[in-house]
Structures are given as C-alpha cells and as structure tokens.
Amino acid sequence: MKIEHLEERVNDYKASIKTVVDKKTLWESTTKKLILNTLRNTAKSYNIGWKVQELNWIHNNEAVNIIFDSFPSDLIDCTNKIPAYQFIQGGALVFSQSYSGDVYIMVLLPYVEQLPIENNNIELGIFNPTEITAKLIIEKVDEFLKEMIKWEVPSYKTELGFQHK
Length: 165
Hints:
Blueprint: H1 6-45, E1 50-57, E2 61-68, H2 76-79, E3 90-97, E4 103-108, E5 121-127, H3 134-152
Antiparallel strand pairs: 1-2, 2-3, 3-4, 4-5
Helix pairs in contact: 1-3
C-alpha cells in the first residue's frame, strides 16, 4: 500500500470525528431537552411515584432517566393491609449519550439483595439523536412499564426457594 492511499482513510477519519461532534451537539441543543420535557410531562400526567433525573457520568457522557422513586400515593391504603410490605425503589428508563454521540436506551431493573444481579438491565436500542422524537420516547416509556410489570409480577416463580423448570 502506498502512502497516497492513506489520504482517503485520513479523510474518512476526519469525517467520523465530525459526525460524533455533530451528534453530541444535537444532543446538547435539542435531544436532551426533548427527552427531559417529554419525561417530565409524562411523570406529571401519571403520578405513579417516578421522577426525572439528569445525570452526568463517565467521561462527559450524559443521561436522562425516569426512575421509580416512591410508592404511588393512591395505593398507600392497600399497603396498610400488609404491614410488612416494602416498596423496592429503582427501576429506571435511561436515555444515555454514548461516546459516539448515539443515544443508548435501556431499562435498569430494581436491585434486590437476595436476587442474582444477572440480567438487571434490558437494552431497548441505540439511536442516532436525529431519530429521537416524542413518539419514540413515549414508546420506550411504554416498553419500560411492560418490563417493570413483568419484574413485579413475573410469569414464573423467580423468588428464592422456587425453582423454574
């Protein structure tokens, strides 16, 4: 390979860096705000004990999530019937900006000490920031709620002392 052939690779590399910068710029200027506003409106419209958070983590990557933080107030009366009942916090839908500028969407399941940690997150997809719309965000909230329902009321016994065969 002659050194002249490297010019095309160098140009491709420069274009790839520009693509990442463009995605991160779009996240900062538009996508993050859209996610925050859509999730905040959802949390306000459906008061089921969740809250919206803005996160900054590993190497300047940012995330927005909606997380179950408290027990739904309109269900408090039913917990009085079982005094030992304990609400398990956690369970989050996370929209995280990856190092490449794409948006990684995942569900984090609540952490319970007695249960194995394996499979405590579920990937819902990786999207270019241009693909993130209010409709997509609501669809992912819907998927998140379906996963949380499966976690709360599994179709088979997963608690300690039960064996799934």
